[in-house]
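Summary for the steering committee. The consortium agreed at its last meeting that each partner would contribute one worked example illustrating the joint modelling workflow. Our contribution is presented below. We chose a case with several input lines so that the handling of multiple components could be demonstrated. No manual editing was applied between input and output; the record is shown as generated.
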Amino acid sequence: MPRSAGRGGIPQERRELVTERNIPLWEVFIRSRNGLAHKHVGSLHAADSEMALQAARDVYTRRGEGLSIWVVPSAAIVASDPADKEVLFEPTASKVYRHPTFYEVPDEVGHM
Amino acid sequence: MYTQALNTREAIGPVEDPEHEARFQARVDGEEKVEPNDWMPEAYRRLLVRQISQHAHSEIVGMLPEGNWITRAPTLRRKAALLAKVQDEGGHGLYLYAAAETLDVSREELVEQLLAGKAKYSSIFNYPTLTWADIGAVGWLVDGAAIMNQIPLCRCSYGPYARAMIRICKEESFHQRQGYEIILTLSRGTAEQKAMAQGALNRWWWPSLMMFGPSDKESQHSDKSMRWKVKRFSNDELRQKFVDATVPQGLYLGLTFPDPELRFDEASGHWAFGAIDFDELRQVIAGNGPCNHERMKARRKAHDDGAWVREAALAYAEKRRSRRDTARAA
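What follows is the complete predicted structure of the assembly.
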């Protein structure tokens, strides 16, 4: 069953302890240089996407860590459940024929 | 960033599920990282929430004694560096709150615990920064002690905490060098400046040693914490490492440590030091340090004064969202 990424919802009884409205959570992805993919670096709270971008710049790129930032509402991320790990990923373990080393090529043929 | 083994006396509940617990322990023993939605013992989750949030609170409260000197830094270079350092501490607090939030607790809830006086933070920040030299001592000694504590946390079994610590440790090294440079400059200055450096060392040495928490004999949570690989070294081991690393740095400055019993022990290869006044540590943790009241008052004021900004930001976001929705509907 899919779950929200990283953090489950806060149980109702705990939420009631909080007098203020929670400020939405965002996940931050940074491209450290051109040619590389954006990589998840952490999360932060911000009221809207514009403030999330600004906060991401202040919190995660104080030392030239990035050239581009993505911010994504944490609630928008759908993640696989760790309990499904075996069902999802175990089958690949037996499929050794998917790897090039499974096949024999005579030495005389050279590098392939 | 500052951690401290505060070792509160809260009892850890019984194991809920021996079978899951055994599998969990095997993964931890195999140096596999635990990630947010993985099964974990409730006591492990609680231990992490407490440690990570105390750590985050320490970063945020730690901005206060240093912020105290930003407007009075002696040069523009020193001021820019101190500003950057205090900004880093704020960032460290945020990385850590985010790591704690992966354990099903909200940042708002954690902040509320701090402001209500229910959560602890590192005892060291309840000491005042009386002179500019104290800013040097905080960087050199307090950040130095923090780094000793934090480097092993980069290998902590809980993934989000370990990842936050890697980031923090990289940045913390600048803090320590920045502090040492301040003390170095003062110790090479006039007699009065040298006396300032010595005074700061005298004031901060013992509280820095206390940052490592109670001695191993009294430490409450060490067993579980070690078994779960949250903690890798005991309080006393880390304290000894810190003393061994720091004493030669102080001697190089031509300063003396406020400990008549401090001596190099040839046989063990370690610096032996005098008895730590753990009563003082207990008093400061219990809220009776020189600045406990002032720190909490400053945090509460900042939180209350900022309430309208948080409300306005949410209201503005709400307004823009509804305008966008209306435009789309039209």
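The mean pLDDT of chain B is 92. The beta strands of chain B are 263-265, 270-272.
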